[in-house]
Amino acid sequence: MENLQMLFMGFSVVLTLENVLVTMLGAVLGLIVGAMPGIGSLAGVALLLPLTYKFNPTTAIIMLGSLYYANMYGGSFSAILLNIPGDSPAVMTALDGYPMATKRNRPGQALFTANMSSFIGGLIGMLILTFMGPLLADLGLKFGPAEMTALLLVAMTSIGWLVGESPTKGVVLTMVGILLASMGMDTLTGSPRYDFGNMYLLGGIPFTPFVIGAVGFSQVLKLMEERNKKVEAHIGQKLTIRGSMLTLHDFRRLVPPAIRSGFMGTFVGVLPGAGATTGAFLGYAAQKAFKSEEPLGSGAIEGIASCEAANNAAAAGSFAPLLALGIPGSGTGAVLLGGLMMWGLNPGPL
Q: Which of 78, 91, 116, 203 is most buried (most C-beta within 10 Å)?
């Protein structure tokens, strides 16, 4: 009962004209920055954080939240339209989003699917966070190294049968990715690994330049070739609100995976270090166990809904350890924690 009273009190504060306008401003800016390939939620929130200096603490905190959520959703824009993920969670969105936009010639519906799935996943995450935040934070602390290792192994090994028709190739590519990620200075011993005597590799390979180089640049060249050959009919296609609406049948396909991934993503987001990327991978992997009208990876609505709902729910779940214990679950959470402390809010029991 006390939670409900505090919830209604929060609504009375948020729904003032000034806070509503600030929320809309934060959402628009977050979408714009999130849609830019390679920036990601961490850099996006950090770049937009100074904008909150002009507001009072309550309004600034509201704007931080809207920036974070909009930035998380904005990564799906470039993933769906260009096959260039805006940030790491959007990698899974591109698997079905881009084929749906190009091969099935439904770019507007693909974006609307991501929009609705993000809303459902975020709503589930916020409701669970409101009523079970402290319990989820305690549960996250009980996950030790063994449990986190098992969770990451599930996420990594699932790539083998998520991407492509050959599980063997998927597993090999996953191992190559882990090998590349291990380059740089060891965080425990301080000894260099696979730096080949190059000081610039001591910090490892940053994710953003790697994605832009390995995925983004090749996709840009491919789009240029397709434009010159005039092969793709969708190039130059105008998006309209009416043309982006989903049918009732599409909604029926969207809702079940979005709800399932919403609950799963919230749980994953609670775990420190797991984050929205792991949530998106696990949400997409779980959808493999359920029936989809179209094969995943070919432009299936279920594929977009599962990963988008999971990563937005994970973003909501990450607030549980952040607010209840003062422990950020990701780099973006650390930036948000700094913003909250800057305005006099010290999350945690102390």
A: 78
Instruction: Tell how strand 184-185 and strand 192-193 pair up.
Output: antiparallel
Residue 41 CB contacts under 8 Å (≥ 6 apart), including other chains = 34, 68, 71, 72, 75, 87, 276, 315, 332
Distance CA 326, CA 244 (A): 41
| Six-digit token string for 183 | 């380059």
Write the CB contacts of 240 (distance below 8 Å, at least 6 apart in sequence). 108
Query: Which residues lie closer than 8 Å to 108 by C-beta, 6 or more apart?
Result: 239, 240, 243, 244, 245
Q: How far apart are the first and last CA of the chain?
A: 24
Return the residue matching tokens 């191992």.
175
Quote the DSSP letter at residue 146: H
Q: What digits encode the pLDDT tens for the residues 5-58?
A: 777 787 788 888 888 898 898 888 888 888 877 666 677 777 777 777 778 888
Q: Which residues pair with 185 in a beta bridge?
A: 192
Locate 91 and state its tokens.
Answer: 């990698």
- HSE on the CB side for 126, CA within 13 Å? 11
Residue 37: both structure tokens together:
């390939």
